[in-house]
Amino acid sequence: MEGSKRNSTVSSPPDGGGGSGIGRAVCQRLASEGASVVVADISEESANETLGSLPTDLRGQVHLAAAVDVSSKESVKKLVTSIQTHYFQPPSVCVNAAGITQDDFLLNMEEEQFDRVIQVNLKGSFLVTQAVAQALVACGAPKGSIITLGSIVGKVGNLGQVNYAASKAGVEGLTRTAAKELSRFGIRCNCVLPGFISTPMTEKVPEKVINKMMSLVPLGRIGEPAEVADVCAFLASDDSRYITGVSIEVTGGLFIG
Ligand code: NAD
């Protein structure tokens, strides 16, 4: 597949959650670098909207949109198989951006709310990371870069998000462990920890809470999806070739102590 402008091989990254917010920005950024991008999302309509926004003028790029439920092993396997059928190789870059919230205080949270958030955010990251890594190892690919989306909330906790915070702390542990196990195959695994980013996910947050949060951000503003995508592009590229197993905070300085 094509190399990017940065002389990396960011080819056909499947972006779980690519239909919206940060995932969409990642797809746009990697496509602008010359990658062929597979936009994967549980909402096929959203994935297609992202697909329609991608540049295609560079080096014969071929982008695809696909429906996937990252919490289903069968669905994830089907996605990776169909990518290999289309591109004759597994993706060299994978960004796990699918995620959900189902907020409630610990005292009120239903078991189903806890389970669903863990299934999508944590189990989904496991299934996608495992399927992509298995495909890369099986075909003897020389290198790969797998990027997960954690959250600063996984480190510091957040009122009403016991399920989400637990899932994101788990994503960091998963990523560090995957980095240790997969480095001998040339596969790097890193986690990005956004703070407060302007996406449909944060549109649900009451204005009062947003204003309070903003007063705690040293850089004094909410982040943009493109600012998280920039860090993902760095981790996808050879510019980060000696970096694995790390978590990078993209928070405007929120909670730096
Ligand atoms: P978003 O809601 O805009 O996008 C999430 C996408 O995931 C949606 O397109 C949705 O359809 C998709 N999705 C949901 N369930 C899925 C499933 N089972 N299978 C496949 N796709 C599924 O959210 P966002 O703000 O862009 O968040 C992206 C990632 O960044 C998430 O993991 C989120 O937890 C994390 N994050 C976001 C923020 C923030 O402030 N926005 C902060 C920290 C971490």
TrEMBL record:
One MF term in the entry's GO annotations: quinone binding
Protein EC: 1.1.1.239, 1.1.1.62, 1.1.1.n12
Swiss-Prot/TrEMBL GO biological process terms: estrogen metabolic process; fatty acid biosynthetic process
Cross-referenced InterPro entries: KR_dom, NAD(P)-bd_dom_sf, Sc_DH/Rdtase_CS, SDR_fam
Bias (Polar residues) ranges: 1-12
SUPFAM superfamilies associated with the record: NAD(P)-binding Rossmann-fold domains
Keyword Iron: no
Reactions the enzyme catalyzes: 17beta-estradiol + NAD(+) = estrone + NADH + H(+); a (3R)-3-hydroxyacyl-CoA + NAD(+) = a 3-oxoacyl-CoA + NADH + H(+); 17beta-hydroxy-5alpha-androstan-3-one + NAD(+) = 5alpha-androstan-3,17-dione + NADH + H(+); testosterone + NAD(+) = androst-4-ene-3,17-dione + NADH + H(+)
This protein's record includes keyword ATP-binding: no
Record key words, sorted: Fatty acid biosynthesis, Fatty acid metabolism, Lipid biosynthesis, Lipid metabolism, Mitochondrion, NAD, Oxidoreductase, Phosphoprotein
Region (Disordered): 1-24
UniProt subcellular location: Mitochondrion matrix
One GO CC term on file: mitochondrial matrix
Occurrences of domain Ketoreductase (ranges): 17-197
Gene3D superfamilies tied to this protein: NAD(P)-binding Rossmann-like Domain
Alphabetized Pfam families for the sequence: adh_short_C2
Top EC class, one word: oxidoreductase
Subunit structure: Heterotetramer with CBR4; contains two molecules of HSD17B8 and CBR4.
Family: Belongs to the short-chain dehydrogenases/reductases (SDR) family.
Protein name per Swiss-Prot or TrEMBL: (3R)-3-hydroxyacyl-CoA dehydrogenase
Lineage: Eukaryota, Metazoa, Chordata, Craniata, Vertebrata
